[in-house]
Specification:
The protein is mainly beta. The chain has three helices and twelve strands. The longest helix is centred in the middle third of the chain and has 9 residues.
Length: 165
């Protein structure tokens, strides 16, 4: 007998759907922008490379987030791929968009907040957006990138950690 769980995704199977999607480990990123109320950040694991030429990346904030509209209308933003030691950043910006004072950051191009010590940074200008169910896909064109040789923070089955070879 198999322990496989089969279901049809829908309102009655949200927990099963979340559990199935949680089997795919992802990196963790904090996206930052300058907004009408000041510096704004949001934790996301929906980040992905889309194209090398032109250099495009995608991320997708939830439409139910209070920060959704600020990010969807932002003309520039920075995607910070978090290092394994940056759990505090991930947790903070998963629940709050402001409160940068407790972290090491500077102001970059277009007044976008830049978080220090990240595994990678991708400075982007807005390329386009697409409505996608309960999220909005944001495509950004990378104008500058940087990386450090550090292990990344991983999100898997609802938990943060790092990859062990």
């Amino acid at each position: 007998m198999s322990d496989e769980q089969r279901f049809t995704p829908g309102p009655d199977t949200r927990d099963d759907f979340r559990a199935a999607m949680g089997r795919f480990a992802t990196g963790v990123a904090v996206i930052t922008t300058q907004s009408e109320i000041g510096p704004l950040g949001m934790t996301a694991n929906s980040f992905s490379s889309i194209s090398m030429d032109p250099p495009l990346v995608m991320w997708a904030p939830g439409r139910g987030s209070r920060r959704h509209d600020a990010f969807v209308t932002a003309q520039s933003f920075c995607i910070h791929v978090l290092g394994a030691d940056q759990f505090a950043l991930a947790k903070h910006f998963s629940t709050q968009g402001d409160g940068f004072d407790g972290f090491d950051w500077t102001v970059g191009a277009d007044d976008v907040p830049l978080l220090a010590g990240c595994a990678a940074q991708f400075h982007c200008t807005l390329h386009t957006t697409y409505e996608a169910g309960d999220h909005t896909m944001i495509l950004g064109q990378i104008t500058q990138a940087a990386y450090r040789d550090v292990p990344g923070l991983i999100f898997h089955q609802g938990q943060f950690g790092q990859f062990q070879a």
